[in-house]
Q: What sequence folds into this?
């Protein structure tokens, strides 16, 4: 049964002189009821009055839905295509469960590329253009309700949701649509910095997140499925299911007490009709497309869009005739794809159902929804708002609540991840009974320890393959965790990060995809709820996780090994260079010789004044040497002073010279022996040895840490980064030990850690000014319900002095302070050379006394020999005299 418009009148068929007759354009329609055929006819007449003019005139041909798909396909061929229709309008059948009736229309017309305009068909399958080639519609599919859900989540600031969807095409389409919106929103917010926003604006801008997606089918145990949802933090449940499936879900949820106060049920249009509405919980929030079932309005809008597109087509293109009938005809309509593109690009702002535009799938882009609230007291759905930005009226929420639920349940058992980094987290083995040994700090404070599981070792990054065993953790961050747990009323279980890393992004299998490792990866992967560790706050991490307010402010500094001065035996000679010592020694002997010569040749010298005096009373060369050394060493001169005026002038000048030399030596000796300091250190990040790296000076940081990220991001530090990248260490502990072992010349790391290490290990020292100032914060997943409470607790701890106490207990205590600030004193090591000089003098004296004794003995023996020889000669002479006298 079909309806044809009456034939054109003779006047209409006669063309005006000089003008061609308007082209007859048949437009078909498959309507849900016969009464809409007249509506269709009137819509075509109104369109003819507005569009076409002398180029075309539309003619309405309509049929109603048939009982089955085969009859419907035959009717399309015999009643519509045989009349060469340019387009076919198709409504949804009156039976809500009959989803196949529009399909034969779409398949049959799509084969010939005849555009099909859906009127009230909302199933998502019709968006698949690989199946429905020529289908477009004036209503959005059910999956587009995800856009309204997403906007409502943002409007009510629900940042945690649970998505429960049926495992069919409709459910998966809704899931995909919502997940796409969430991902796009997250991408947009990654590059934004909300650090200076207040909490209210920050909550509005942060990204909603699906905590869990639960799929179900006819065989799914709904009770077990909903129990899984109940264990999650989120309390906002979005349901996408058919009418019958929704009714079963509501019933199971009611039995598990999941429809009361604190919960939010957000659904679409199918989930609050018929059986589903009878089981719906009080406070259900749903959507209904305005004019979604107003077939008359959609007929008028669809006819107007077709007429507008035909006018554009006729003005620009040569239109070929559509196919005539299906029997024996396998040729597609060549103009059909073009006509479809023109239809999809058309814009009709003044439709009875609102603004009409189409997306690339042929679905309507702009739609208006009523926001409905199921309230049991009136026992009906109450419209509380319209999805177009207008104000939402009062809503009754599950449990009869009038206040908007927060949308989540805060778990009181948190999984905490941390990392071994002294003094913030110490790691020690447990006792044999599995408990932690009680210890006290140097200030007498009892150390609070907690059991933490992790690799069997204390150096991160090297023992990741070791078995996971219970260990004892304590330190600055553990005390802070205990304080937060007490003030915020939660319990916790602590574990050490498996790979020993703070967290950075790395490529997966050499692809462009990046994933976080370390503590960041465990937090984002759901293995931890909170990071309590010296985790540096930076922009890269803040894009993916939430940071609390800083619990400690710090920056980067440089750790080097302290050059401890070593005193040698000749350290007392260090004030003067060897050249000066040589000149002083030469001067002593030159002056002594000059004194001897001046005193000897002077007419007033002891040699000339009294020649009868003993020569020993005159200034000998040895006496002059004694005088010269005595004046220089200030040993006092008892005798042997020069007598001549010229020699005494030289002696006075020499005494002044000696006074200056001795005073200078004494002053510099104190500087070298008492105030000796290390050689020139690194001056800071701009030191030439850092800015112009070489293999003679090696510096590094920790791999895949915030410091590594900082140097990688800074263009002006790229040269330094390339040098560091080759030498970076797996952990701070390894790098610090390398500095102590002289394998690493400088280590760049967090100032709080390095200053503590330098205060505990006296052979280390930090140098240069702080740079890249930042802070340590507690990390949580995006939109964590704990963020605000943790930040408030940290601010309170700063105000009441708790953080100051932690600093004094763990960070500021310094082993090396008393040594470095003690008055500088000389030790035996400093003056050992002087004692060795005395010992050398003693040894030299003893050696010389033996020489003198030997010389004396040798001299005495010769004298005795001479005496004996003289005595023998005298005896012989006497004997000769006696003999000569006798002979005479």
A:
């Amino acid at each position: 049964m079909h309806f044809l418009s009456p034939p054109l009148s003779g006047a209409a068929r006669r063309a005006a002189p000089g003008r061609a007759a308007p082209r007859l354009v048949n437009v078909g329609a498959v309507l849900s009821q016969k009464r809409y055929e007249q509506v269709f006819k009137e819509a075509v007449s109104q369109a003819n009055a507005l569009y076409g003019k002398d180029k075309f005139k539309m003619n309405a041909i309509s049929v109603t839905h048939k009982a089955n798909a085969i009859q419907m396909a035959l009717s399309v061929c015999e009643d519509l295509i045989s009349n060469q229709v340019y387009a076919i309008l198709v409504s949804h059948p009156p039976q809500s469960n009959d989803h196949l009736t529009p399909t034969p229309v779409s398949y049959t017309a799509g084969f010939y590329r005849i555009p099909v305009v859906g009127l009230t068909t909302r199933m998502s399958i019709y968006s698949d253009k690989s199946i429905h080639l020529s289908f477009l519609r004036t209503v959005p599919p059910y999956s587009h309700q995800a856009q309204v859900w997403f906007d409502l989540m943002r409007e009510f600031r629900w940042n945690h949701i649970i998505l429960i969807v049926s495992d069919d095409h409709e459910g998966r389409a809704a899931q995909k649509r919502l997940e796409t919106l969430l991902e796009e929103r997250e991408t947009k917010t990654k590059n934004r910095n909300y650090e200076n926003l207040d909490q209210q604006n920050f909550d509005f801008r942060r990204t909603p997140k699906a905590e869990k997606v639960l799929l179900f089918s006819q065989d799914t145990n709904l009770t077990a499925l909903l129990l899984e949802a109940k264990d999650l933090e989120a309390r906002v449940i979005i349901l996408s299911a058919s009418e019958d499936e929704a009714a079963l879900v509501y019933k199971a949820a009611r039995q598990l007490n999941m429809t009361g106060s604190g919960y939010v049920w957000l659904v679409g249009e199918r989930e609050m009709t018929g059986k589903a509405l009878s089981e719906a919980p009080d406070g259900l929030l749903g959507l209904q497309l305005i004019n979604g079932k107003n077939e008359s309005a959609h007929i008028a809008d669809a006819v107007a869009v077709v007429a507008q597109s035909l006018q554009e087509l006729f003005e620009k293109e040569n239109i070929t005739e559509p196919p005539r009938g299906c029997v024996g005809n396998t040729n597609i309509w060549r103009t059909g794809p073009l006509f479809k593109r023109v239809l999809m690009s058309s814009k009709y702002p003044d439709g009875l159902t609102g603004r009409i535009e189409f997306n690339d799938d042929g679905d309507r882009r702009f739609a208006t929804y009523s926001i409905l609230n199921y309230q049991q007291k009136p026992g009906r759905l109450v419209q509380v708002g319209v999805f177009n930005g207008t104000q939402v009226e009062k809503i009754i929420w599950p449990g009869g609540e009038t206040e908007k639920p927060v949308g989540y349940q805060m778990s009181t058992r948190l999984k905490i991840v941390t990392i071994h980094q002294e003094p913030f987290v110490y790691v020690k083995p447990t006792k044999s009974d599995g408990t932690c040994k009680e210890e006290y700090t140097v200030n007498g404070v009892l150390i609070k320890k907690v059991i933490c599981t992790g690799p069997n070792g204390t150096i991160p990054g090297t023992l990741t393959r070791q078995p996971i065993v219970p260990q004892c953790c304590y330190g600055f961050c553990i005390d802070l965790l205990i304080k937060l747990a007490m003030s915020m009323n939660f319990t916790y279980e602590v574990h050490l990060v498996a790979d020993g890393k703070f967290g950075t992004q790395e490529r997966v299998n050499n692809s462009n995809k990046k994933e976080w490792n370390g503590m960041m990866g465990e937090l984002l992967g759901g293995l931890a709820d909170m990071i309590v560790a010296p985790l540096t706050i930076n922009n890269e991490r803040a894009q993916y996780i939430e940071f609390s307010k800083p619990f400690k402010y710090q920056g980067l500094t440089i750790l080097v090994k302290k050059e401890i001065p070593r005193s040698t035996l000749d350290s007392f000679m260090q004030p003067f260079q060897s050249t000066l010592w040589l000149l002083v020694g030469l001067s002593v002997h030159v002056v002594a010789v000059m004194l001897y010569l001046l005193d000897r040749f002077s007419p007033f010298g002891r040699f000339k004044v009294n020649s009868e005096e003993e020569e020993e009373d005159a200034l000998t060369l040895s006496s002059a040497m004694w005088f010269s050394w005595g004046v220089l060493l200030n040993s006092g001169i008892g005798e042997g002073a020069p007598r001549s005026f010229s020699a005494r002038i030289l002696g006075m000048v020499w005494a002044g010279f000696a006074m200056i030399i001795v005073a200078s030596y004494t002053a510099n000796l104190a500087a070298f022996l008492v105030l000796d300091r290390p050689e020139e250190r690194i001056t800071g990040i701009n030191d030439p040895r850092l800015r112009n790296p070489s293999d003679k000076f090696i510096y590094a940081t920790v791999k895949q840490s915030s410091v590594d990220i900082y140097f990688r991001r800074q263009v002006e530090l790229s040269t330094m980064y390339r040098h560091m990248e080759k030498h970076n260490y797996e952990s701070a502990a390894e790098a610090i030990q390398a500095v102590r072992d002289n394998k690493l010349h400088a280590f760049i790391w967090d100032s709080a850690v390095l200053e503590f290490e330098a205060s505990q290990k006296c052979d280390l020292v930090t140098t240069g000014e702080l740079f890249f100032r930042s802070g340590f914060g507690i990390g949580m997943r995006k939109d964590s319900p704990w963020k605000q409470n943790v930040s408030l607790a940290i601010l309170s701890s700063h105000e009441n002095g708790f953080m100051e106490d932690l600093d004094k207990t763990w960070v500021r205590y310094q082993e090396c302070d008393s040594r470095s600030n003690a008055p500088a004193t000389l030790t035996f090591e400093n003056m050992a050379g002087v004692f060795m000089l005395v010992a050398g003098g003693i040894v030299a004296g003893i050696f010389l006394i033996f020489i003198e004794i030997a010389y004396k003995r040798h001299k005495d023996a010769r004298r005795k020999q001479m005496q004996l020889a003289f005595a023998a000669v005298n005896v012989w002479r006497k004997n000769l005299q006696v003999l000569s006298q006798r002979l005479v």
Remarks:
- Confidence is low (pLDDT under 50) at residues 1-18, 193-205, 458-464.
- Residues 162 and 237 are 5 Å apart (CA to CA).
- The radius of gyration is 51 Å.
